[in-house]
Design brief:
The protein is of the alpha+beta class. It is 56% helix and 19% strand. The protein is built from 4 helices and 3 strands; from the N terminus they run H-H-H-H-E-E-E. It has helices at residues 2-6, 10-67, 75-81, 85-88, and strands at 91-97, 101-109, 121-129. It has a 3-stranded antiparallel β-sheet with strand order 1-2-3. Helix 2 (10-67) runs antiparallel to helix 3 (75-81). The longest helix has 58 residues, at 10-67.
């Protein structure tokens, strides 16, 4: 009888294997959820960095065009033209003229991977001498 306590029969062995498979499935779902959250955070960070880069490029090109007296377009149009279309839709471009310089400020709302979160906006400013 003691032998049976130390060595369970085939039914007990099958039941233990079934429980281990269930435990492995639960662990897999937990790890998969964690990896999905990390992947979405990385994508969101990439979108935020891209929005900042686009705002910087737009402000510089807008200021460059606005500072040139014989430009074929205004700085505001140049700033919008230098951004990706999906970011330019929610962008705000402001042009300020000084005595001998022009400043273009571009503000872009950072798109969210998950719509219920708000990541704010990014603002870049460029100043060029008028010439």
């Amino acid at each position: 009888m003691v032998t049976h306590a130390l060595h369970p029969g085939p039914r007990a062995s099958r039941a233990r294997k079934a429980r281990q498979k269930g435990q492995a499935a639960i662990e897999y779902v937990g790890v998969l959820t964690l990896l999905l959250v990390v992947a979405m955070a990385v994508v969101q960070l990439g979108i935020a960095v891209y929005a900042a880069q686009q705002a910087g490029t737009a402000s510089r090109s807008g200021a460059r065009v606005e500072s040139y007296d014989r430009a074929s377009m205004d700085g505001r149009s140049a700033a919008y033209a230098s951004m990706s279309g999906w970011l330019a839709d929610d962008a705000d471009v402001r042009v300020q003229h000084g005595f001998d310089e022009v400043t273009v400020t571009v503000e872009i709302d950072i798109p969210a991977v998950i719509p219920m979160f708000d990541f704010g906006n990014v603002t870049k400013r460029a100043t060029m001498p008028r010439g």
